[in-house]
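JOB MANIFEST
job_type = single_chain_structure
chain_count = 1
residues = 369
[input]
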Amino acid sequence: MQQHQEDAASYRGAGVDVEREEQVLSRVIETVSQTFAFVRDVGKPVLPVGFFANVIDIGHGMGLALSTDGVGTKLMIAQMMDKYDTVGIDCMAMNVNDVLCVGARPIAFLDYIAVQHANPDLINPLMLGLKEGARQAGVAICGGEIAQVREMLASERDGWGCDLVGMCVGHVPLDKVIVGKSVAPGDVIIGIRSSGIHSNGLTLARQVLFAQNRYTVDTKFEELGRTLGEELLEPTIIYVPEVVEALARSLNIKGLAHITSDGLLNLLRLDTASHPVGYEIDRFPPIPPIFSLIQHAGGIPDHEMFQVFNMGVGFCVVIAEADAASFMDIVKQHGREALQIGRVVSDPEHKVVIRPRGLVGQGNQFFHV
């Protein structure tokens, strides 16, 4: 396999230096992990830092799942559209979907909104989006913070600069925590469709579509059936209802992966160290037209597209073959689309192979073969 160097350079050129982020993150994890020793009894983390969410032991066999995330530069699309009432759904989704990945049910949410000014025409729509996200996820927003930090926020429209971050809490019995330890060859990989770009890869998308090709949010594309801005603002899907129901029915779910940045490479985050496996993707749902548009407009190769974007699959479930059909039925009942996209195989090299595209992934990169 030959590594393609232009992928990292291209994404770095758009403002995201993945290699440097990995270097910084390794030091952050080292420092944060040292704080585990500060907890003597209730509240001890039961997972290492770096999974989709962590779980702390609160006693009596119960755990609290914790995760935090933000919307990122999707807020810049909202600003370009002057439409802020959906990005709160994205913020909720990015957090609750991560909490699902440890087998937990999300129950509560906190938000942090940084603004240039206390602008009600900005903050009120943001809160309406968070409220709708909370309704979809079945959680309560128990508190939050609004910080006026004008000098810290850049914005092309004075008074409208903002950042939106959330934190989710879920609950899970400690003996029901799912991190992938039971994943085995022969298990089935189910992919649940995304609604489009979700909340990852917007920096590269903006660079290609707006900076390089001079499109605007009002540019209409026949293949999208709407304007570019409307497509990019489509909210991230909240997968809570179908996954929580499947967990409640005690289906033999082995692993759960929220497909965000790094795409299907997120499957490699499952804890399968005791029995090295790989993931063979032999089918893939039709790729949403927004990704084909971005790829064509930027001349972006497949390997970079699949490691930056979800490419149409927003959430993956690794499940015993006997329960795969039941899980897909549950997804369908909730109005979502699911497809068996592959299987777990024995693989000491721990790879993700996307056969329809001739891609092999290890670490945080895909390679053409």
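[summary]
The chain has two domains: 62-173, 188-368.
Residues 1-9 have pLDDT under 50 and may be disordered.
exit_status = 0
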